[in-house]
Amino acid sequence: STTDSVVTLLDYGAGNVRSVRNAIKHLGFDIKDVQNPEDILNASRLIFPGVGAFGNAMDVLNKTGMAEALCAYIEKDRPFLGICLGLQLLFESSEENGPVKGLGLIPGTVGRFDSSNGFRVPHIGWNALQITTDSGILDDVGKRHVYFVHSYRAMPSDNNKEWVSSTCNYGDTFIASIRRGNVHAVQFHPEKSGDVGLSILRRFLYPKAQITKKPGEGKALKLAQRVIACLDVRANDKGDLVVTKGDQYDVRENTDEKEVRNLGKPVELARQYYIDGADEVSFLNITGFRDFPLGDLPMLQVLKYTSENVFVPLTVGGGIRDFTDANGRHYTSLEVASEYFRSGADKISIGSDAVYAAEEYLRTGVKTGKTSLEQISRVYGNQAVVVSIDPRRVYVKNPTDVQFKTVRVSNLGPNGEEYAWYQCTVNGGREGRPIGAYELAKAVEELGAGEILLNCIDCDGQGKGFDIDLVKLISDAVSIPVIASSGAGVPEHFSEVFAKTNASAALAAGIFHRKEVPIQTVKEHLLKEGIEVRI
Ligand code: 1PR
């Protein structure tokens, strides 16, 4: 019957639930959106992918009468799956901008991870579960990783132990999933956890299906180091959107025609990297600084198509800033970001605009709340906001020669210099700014960035390895995760950056596009070196 293939989705409009929609559709179900409390009570199965801040979500649920309907639905043991905040809201209260009262169905409070013990917050990435009871939906997980992204978590206790079906360790042992009868909730994102995640959703959606268990695969123990494939995207001179790749940010061929280097089609490549085992895929709209992204419809189209069948996190960057178009219509950076999220991005990345924001913040010492970085992280959460840094190495003889933080370099400069600072640039590396990567990283962390994508113009496309001095400097300076980027040429470069720095992820472009090293080879090498990865 028709109701058998319908999932009721509770989307109260606070953010991006496109990924959940895509995964449900991929599994053959239609979606009915909750419009009023009755839709909850009449659902045959309900998915609640909570997004945004706890307090805001509770406000909406209380005002619309949905809080009461949810409690009634769950107390009747109707099929329910809460995701992320959709798990947290079931507890009594949360510390997030609070304490704020929750639905109160499960004893316990939700608190923030403690970053003082060396664990970076947000907890972003693929982590292992310790399954404590028969969860019904986690049967295929075994020792494989699932994707988390959050700063708050609920803790297991004697009072809630009959609910807890799995835990995860990240500094603390926190609740990764709960189950009671037909009621399930998970702190991680099954819709972004690749095949493992899809199998969790499948078991929830088809509870009576006889699906053979296939546990036992994998060796997941803890948070994995991520391997990210990056697609620099721009229109070529014919107007087609292509994946390109620069040498130190110069993306044109060394021929008379100086064409934009073309390494393939964005949607196809992204899908391929997903199949090959990329932990995340990033798109950088590298001419976004001059071409307005909302005018650049192909980019939004690329995201829409990609997100339909790529079930790992997608990040998109380029052109996130306030903009006035030729007709005088003003767009805020928040609108630009929202359009990216609506089209399928899980995270957005800000380059140039974050440099201006950091400069201003360092000059005035005031957080205005008005920068793109602050606005977007306030609405979507800081875990959804990446700052992309494009620094260039500047050698100096003495650290006191400049006002910026310097490092003692591993390889001397051209005139025997022993030190360098890393100058931030804007507009795709075209303009150097009076701020160092170290100063920028610390400032954007305070302004609400949840992660740093750390490029290096000197190393980009050179295949000689990551700039270890730079990655060490930045990953030691902040307590948010840092993605090392630029320069990967062989699998050993990945193990080197993880062994010598505190990077949480390593990103590469050229070696993957030119098919020199498959992602799987990189992962196998890391595994052999004793580094935790998702296989
Ligand atoms: O300033 O907010 O509009 O964002 C622009 C974004 O586009 C920034 O994230 C910036 O890094 C990126 N970008 C701008 N110009 C270029 C260029 O190459 N001409 N690409 C560019 C950045 C660096 C990485 C690259 C790694 C790995 N490219 O994306 O993928 O260096 O490459 P490799 O493994 O081949 O060495 P805004």
From TrEMBL:
Main localization of the protein described in the UniProt heading: plastid
Catalytic activity: 5-[(5-phospho-1-deoxy-D-ribulos-1-ylimino)methylamino]-1-(5-phospho-beta-D-ribosyl)imidazole-4-carboxamide + L-glutamine = D-erythro-1-(imidazol-4-yl)glycerol 3-phosphate + 5-amino-1-(5-phospho-beta-D-ribosyl)imidazole-4-carboxamide + L-glutamate + H(+); L-glutamine + H2O = L-glutamate + NH4(+)
Domain Glutamine amidotransferase residues, every copy: 9-205
Alphabetic keyword roster: Amino-acid biosynthesis, Chloroplast, Glutamine amidotransferase, Histidine biosynthesis, Hydrolase, Lyase, Multifunctional enzyme, Plastid
Pathway: Amino-acid biosynthesis; L-histidine biosynthesis; L-histidine from 5-phospho-alpha-D-ribose 1-diphosphate: step 5/9
Gene3D superfamilies: 3.40.50.880, Aldolase class I
EC number(s) on file: 3.5.1.2
InterPro entries for the chain: Aldolase_TIM (IPR013785), Class_I_gatase-like (IPR029062), GATASE (IPR017926), His_biosynth (IPR006062), HisF (IPR004651), IGPS_HisA/HisF (IPR050064), IGPS_HisHF (IPR014640), Imidazole-glycPsynth_HisH (IPR010139)
SUPFAM superfamilies according to UniProt: Class I glutamine amidotransferase-like, Ribulose-phoshate binding barrel
Subcellular localization, as worded in the UniProt entry: Plastid, Chloroplast
Superkingdom of the source species: Eukaryota
Pfam families assigned to the protein according to its UniProt record, in alphabetical order: GATase, His_biosynth
Family statement: Belongs to the HisA/HisF family.
Protein purpose: IGPS catalyzes the conversion of PRFAR and glutamine to IGP, AICAR and glutamate. The glutaminase domain produces the ammonia necessary for the cyclase domain to produce IGP and AICAR from PRFAR. The ammonia is channeled to the active site of the cyclase domain.
UniProt xrefs under PANTHER family: IMIDAZOLE GLYCEROL PHOSPHATE SYNTHASE HISHF, IMIDAZOLE GLYCEROL PHOSPHATE SYNTHASE SUBUNIT HISF/H IGP SYNTHASE SUBUNIT HISF/H
Protein name: Imidazole glycerol phosphate synthase hisHF
Organism: Stylosanthes scabra
Name of the gene this protein is made from: HISN4_1
